């Protein structure tokens, strides 16, 4: 019997290591050619499936696929595109299966966060209902670290490492300038709903190199007087401090601090980050000299300082997804199971998708110190192994030698297009 | 004859590699104990000399001093503190020499940019006038790359590498999201007066990995319609683009774009960067989805991705400063002389301080493309060797193992203090 083909797609915000998962999927599938035929990738994620715009990964050399392990971004294109609920738009799901059928796709590997886990589950259910044989496996990925069951999410460890390293470096900079210049440094990091990434800023300070760092979590309602008092006290004691602020910090009114309606001189709305808002408070409330940074995409694309643990786990999730499919699994997601902390050991587990979809894992309350501005020892123990190890990309002329794939299109088989 | 002591101070904004120059000074001095006694460092730069707050670097182990080579920030503290002209405040200069005399300081190594070169020269001249035997050597350092005579400035290469690497990474991120999400990514970099750092963003795109990147230089008056037309054209062609904007970009009125007077909802002034200003223009002018980042201190502290060339040159400048002193030089600065481009070869030269002080080296006009948004091949040839090579710090538990010195104070000898 001719082996059936696989479809792989990247979903949502990309990371420094999502391509390592892609490499895990493709390299593992290539080792099982008797069971998996071609691996097609969706150009721009699930949109590629809907539009029948498939990429033939078989046209890429082994070397190019291996290079995905050290290349950030989404090599096939990703998409912020959530399928509507089945009842509201069955045509989308039917089209997906129509495309899968046309290209004899028997394996669906969907690489993303909570939304894509939900889509993956629904596609699997619909295929079952319609009697189309399909194994749908979700490959976890999200810098937000908010998927349930899995101990941590591929992509998070590398952002965490970037934030910890950068906060340590910038804080040393501020420490040396504080007497005559900047006393408060504010860095804004990602995390609209949960403070996992902000928490990583706390790792910059260790017993060997203590640094005064305050963290503003989305989990803790922002209290301006309390915050300013704490900055004042810290600067009086140490001469300076750094503030790691999550983009998702909200005021007591529940509104994002970053949405406070900045206007330019002409009254036009300004779309600002939260770092300049905090900076203005420090200036007007304490009259301390400040500097601020917004890491934005720099943090989630920073493959140059990726965590070795994260790269290994991302690859392992891709590989495990294929292995689960080969074992006959459907509607599941491989997970990372923490076996021990010291030494850090982990193994691959499995979670059923109906337990993953639409569940958001928040930061445990006991990961945040009582004052709301720091991380607890328990949080440190959780984060420490995730930022372990360096996995440097190769360099060429001083720059990381990232790969760009050929991304050759698979000839279309369907007469009709599909309006996405 | 008892060897005379040396005084070393860091000045102005610190860099990822200024401590490598400190290591060069201290390690070289330690090899010549018959000629140089103790090496004292100024706590918080020149303020340490004025306040007679000296650090005895002899109390630091060889290992700690060697670790300076991979530690960012200013290990002894730096200062934004410019001495007033001699005629206006002779007391400051007299105090400096009084402290030098009290601690038998015969060598003055001042590690900074243009202002400190000027101070170094004036101290040297005054010592000569007063018959106090002193050799004053300036050690070049500035991320702004604006010192004359020297081919490039220690500190610049590492920021340039950080900006090139980060721009490449973030642009790959945007490329993968552009169809359904961000189409324009804006990153703000340092360079109040010259576009050297912004130019480095152009290095992110190479023949092997072409990326659509527009650069906004302080040297090119900002023309909003022309800029927006160019963004529009680039996004239409590639689907996305990155914009690297120098903090020093000015409008046709000569005012900084970042100083356009942002106000919050209550009318309070907001101290913003230029990236959100550009972002707002892209939004209101083209209605394209954007993201923006402000690298701020993250860029100049990023020792984790320092340029190997830069680390080597920074160390060499410190070592050369001591060697120049031992050869009897005074009022000079070691320089980097480019010998050849391919292969890149450089050697140490010397410049008299009166040719260095108060001269700012701007970017040559032929380094910027005719349209004003890119770098020329000539610029690439200049920048390429400066970002060459990686020089990773050692890591401990996932974080760079940066050193914090003991910074033991030297007992004061003078009865009087000095109000800085």
Description:
The structure is a homodimer of 420-residue chains. Chain A is of the alpha/beta class and 420 residues long. Chain A folds into two domains: 4-142 and 304-357 and 391-400, Rossmann fold (3-Layer(aba) Sandwich), CATH 3.40.50.450; 156-300, Rossmann fold (3-Layer(aba) Sandwich), CATH 3.40.50.460. In chain A, 33% of the residues lie in helices and 18% in strands. The first copy, chain A, has twelve helices and 15 strands. In chain A, the strands form five sheets. In chain A, strands 3-2-1-4-5 form a five-stranded mixed beta sheet, sandwiched between helices. Chain A has a four-stranded parallel beta sheet with strand order 7-8-6-11, sandwiched between helices. Chain A has a two-stranded antiparallel ribbon with strand order 9-10. Chain A starts with a strand and ends in a 20-residue tail after the last strand. The mean pLDDT of chain A is 95. At the A-B interface, helix 6, strand 9, strand 10, helix 9 and strand 11 of A face helix 6, strand 9, strand 10, helix 9 and strand 11 of B.
Average per-residue pLDDT of chain A, rounded, comes to 95
CATH topology of the largest domain in chain A: Rossmann fold
The rounded Rg of chain A comes to 23 Å
Helix and strand string of chain A, N-terminal first?
EHEHEHHEHEHEHEHEEEHEHHEEHEE
Judging from the principal axes of the Cα atoms, what is the shape of chain A? elongated
Q: Specify the CATH class of the largest domain in chain A.
A: Alpha Beta
Query: Strand fraction band of chain A?
Result: 15-25%
């Amino acid at each position: 019997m001719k082996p059936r083909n696989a479809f792989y797609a990247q979903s949502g915000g990309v990371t420094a290591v999502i391509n390592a998962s892609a490499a895990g999927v493709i390299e593992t599938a290539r080792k099982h050619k008797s069971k998996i035929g071609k691996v097609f990738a969706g150009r721009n994620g699930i949109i590629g499936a809907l539009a029948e715009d498939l990429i033939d990964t078989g046209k890429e050399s082994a070397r190019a696929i291996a290079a995905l392990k050290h290349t950030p971004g989404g090599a096939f294109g990703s998409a912020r595109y959530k399928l509507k609920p089945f009842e509201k738009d069955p045509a989308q799901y039917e089209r997906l299966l129509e495309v899968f059928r046309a290209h004899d796709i028997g394996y669906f590997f969907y690489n993303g966060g909570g939304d894509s886990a939900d889509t993956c589950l629904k596609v699997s259910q619909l295929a079952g209902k319609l009697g189309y044989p399909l194994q749908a496996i979700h490959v976890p990925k999200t810098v937000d670290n908010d998927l349930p069951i899995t101990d941590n999410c591929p992509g998070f460890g590398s952002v965490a490492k970037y934030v910890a390293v950068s906060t340590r470096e910038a804080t040393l900079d501020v420490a040396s300038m504080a007497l005559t210049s900047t006393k408060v440094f504010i860095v804004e990091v990602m995390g609209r709903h949960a403070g996992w990434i902000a928490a990583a800023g706390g790792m910059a300070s260790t017993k060997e190199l203590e640094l005064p760092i305050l963290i503003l979590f989305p989990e803790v309602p922002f209290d301006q007087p309390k915050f300013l008092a704490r900055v004042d006290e810290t600067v009086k004691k140490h001469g300076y401090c750094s503030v790691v602020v999550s983009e998702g910090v909200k005021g007591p009114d529940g509104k994002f601090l970053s949405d406070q309606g900045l206007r330019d001189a002409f009254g036009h709305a300004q779309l600002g980050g939260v770092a300049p808002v905090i900076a203005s408070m420090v200036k007007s409330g304490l009259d301390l000299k400040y500097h601020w940074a917004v890491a934005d995409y720099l943090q989630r694309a920073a493959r140059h300082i990726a965590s070795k643990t994260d790269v290994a786990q991302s690859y392992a999730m891709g590989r495990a997804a294929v292995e689960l499919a080969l074992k006959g699994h459907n509607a599941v997601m491989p997970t990372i199971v923490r076996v021990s902390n010291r030494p850090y050991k982990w193994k691959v587990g499995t979670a059923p998708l109906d337990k993953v979809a639409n569940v958001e894992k928040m930061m445990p309350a006991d990961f945040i110190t009582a004052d709301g501005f720091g991380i607890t020892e328990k949080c440190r123990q959780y984060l420490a192994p995730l930022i372990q190890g360096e996995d440097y990309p190769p360099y060429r002329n001083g720059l990381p030698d990232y790969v760009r794939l050929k991304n050759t299109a698979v000839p279309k088989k369907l007469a009709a297009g599909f309006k996405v």
